[in-house]
Amino acid sequence: MERIAELETHLNSYDSSARSEALRKLALLAQRGEARLEPETDVVNMHLHTFYSFNALGHSPVSLAWLAKQQGFKAAGIVDFDVIKGVDEFLVGCEIMGVRGSAGIESRVFVPEYGAQEINSPGEPGVCYHMGIGFTSSQVPDTVAAILDDLGQRAAERSRGILARVNAYLDPVTVDYEIDVLPLTPAGNPTERHMVLAYVQVAQRAIPDQAAFWAGKLGIAPDEIGALMNDSAAFQNLIRAKLMKRGGVGYVQPDSGMFPTLESFHELIVACGALPCCAWLDGTTATEEAMEDWLGFLTDKGVVALNIIPDRNWNFPDPETRRIKVQNLYDIVELARELDLPLNIGTELNSFGQKLVDDLARPELAAVRQPFVDGAYFIYGHTVLQRALGLGYQSEWAAVYLPTRGERNEFYLQAGRLIPPGRAGLDRLGQLDPAQDPAGILTALRR
After folding, report:
1. Could you tell me the pTM of the whole model?
2. How far is CA 48 from the centre of its chain?
3. I need a labelling partner for 388 at 20 to 30 A (CA). Which of 161, 252, 256, 348 fits?
4. Which domains does the chain have, with CATH numbers?
């Protein structure tokens, strides 16, 4: 057990070769029965952030592949903010471990047609969290490389702006972007949470009486700050909420120039053979209250799937709030079915306190469990067929043989159910004739 724990630590090293070697050794231990693996169940988490953006537990892509196998996930998927650096690492890790995997990207875009109302980013009219799922490589075509670079540049500019404003407020505790923040990331893509950690570390070095300092800067009673500081996760969440989120000194109301357009983000996603995906919040914003209109707008723009974070759609102590959110959840799942939009679900794990996986057996989620699991099979089916044979959702082959969303959804769902994860699935696909039609491929897979 000590050896396994040590290897798991190496899985999260910033040295990619150390991560790869640790996963290889863990896979061998699992094959020998020396590492305990839970039996596979209908547990899926298709929205897990890695340390390439921020993971609250520090997980790398290969660490999440190992975790999914160890915990018996039916399928797992990563989604990182503004980067796809973890795609190859995660999908190779899933192949090694025998896990059904998918990979995606999340960003914020500005939608001028909805510039006067909230979409899914509360308090920020026109700003939309948006996604692409089903990527199969960390490399992008030259034609869209500038779009991906622009995402990173815009994110860095926003981060530097936050630092400048917070530095002025917290002086003499000031953070340097290159010296204090970038070393906290494996690939130079810091988030607000990395900056918060940098402020905590700088304050520890520079301020003798940290409790008094933070009590004054955060507006917390001195007799309360000590207990908060002893809970590292809660303390960091508090700093971020007080200083960097809406109402804080580091916050600036976003405008159209801070984020890419929906159209350019879709151009990047589709050029990579991936799937534009709407991100659902909870049905309470002005836009989501008229969700049929919003999804109609998005599908016209090329959206073909919908992401849901289940926990924010049922997990509330107030019974009436829970009733409203759960009904909104059921309504959006039904609308997605009517519009032929497969579902991508997960817990994110990019904030302290979030669950490792959703409990789909809960009464509130049991009614939508099957479409959630089907969505995981669907995106895995697309991913493995595109990666192995170039027959993914956006391929010319699919356009010829599967012209509608409904036809594609059903094919990739069935393929995802039939193709085993890992090496066994790749071997089976290697025996197929990619010139066959969808029915022929499914028949061959059943054999």
Report:
1. 0.96
2. 5
3. 348
4. 1-35 (no CATH), 37-110+130-139+272-378 (3.20.20.140), 149-243 (no CATH)
Residue 424 pLDDT exceeds 90: yes
Structural contact between residues 377 and 73, judged by C-beta atoms closer than 8 angstroms: no
One DSSP character per residue, 22-75 reads HHHHHHHHHHTT-S--PPP-S-EEEEE--TTT--TT---HHHHHHHHHHHT-SE
User: Tokens at residue 447, please?
Assistant: 């054999």
pLDDT tens, residue by residue, 303-320? 999 999 999 999 999 999
Residues 411 and 385 sit within 8 Å (Cβ to Cβ): no
Please identify which residue in the block is written with the tokens 């304050």: 203
pLDDT tens-digit series, residues 411-420: 999 999 999 9
Sole residue written with tokens 């000031």:
174
β-pairing, 127-133 with 100-110? antiparallel
Q: At what angle do helices 87-97 and 61-71 cross, to 10 degrees?
A: 30
C-alpha–C-alpha distance, residues 222 and 114, integer Å:
44
The SS3 call for residue 359 is: coil
What's the CA gap between 252 and 155, in Å, rounded? 14
Phi and psi at 64, nearest 5°, equal: -70, -35
158 HSE (CA, 13 A, CB side): 24
Residue 437 binned pLDDT confidence (cut-offs 50, 70, 90): very high
The set of residues, in sequence order, having a beta carbon less than 8 Å from that of 413 and lying 6+ positions away, is 342, 374, 377, 378, 381
Which H/E stretch holds residue 250? Answer: none
CA–CA separation, 104 and 286 (whole Å) = 27
Distance CA 334, CA 423 (A): 36
How much is the CA Rg of the chain, to the nearest whole Å?
Answer: 22
Residues 6+ apart with CB under 8 A from 262: 109, 110, 111, 128, 130, 301
Q: Alpha-carbon distance 379 to 341, whole Å?
A: 11
The count of C-alpha atoms lying within 13 angstroms of the C-alpha of 345, restricted to the half-sphere facing its C-beta, is: 32
Tokens of 102: 């998918």
Written as six digits, the tokens of 52 are 């390439």
User: Which DSSP string corresponds to 119-140?
Assistant: SSSTT-TTEEEEEEE----S--
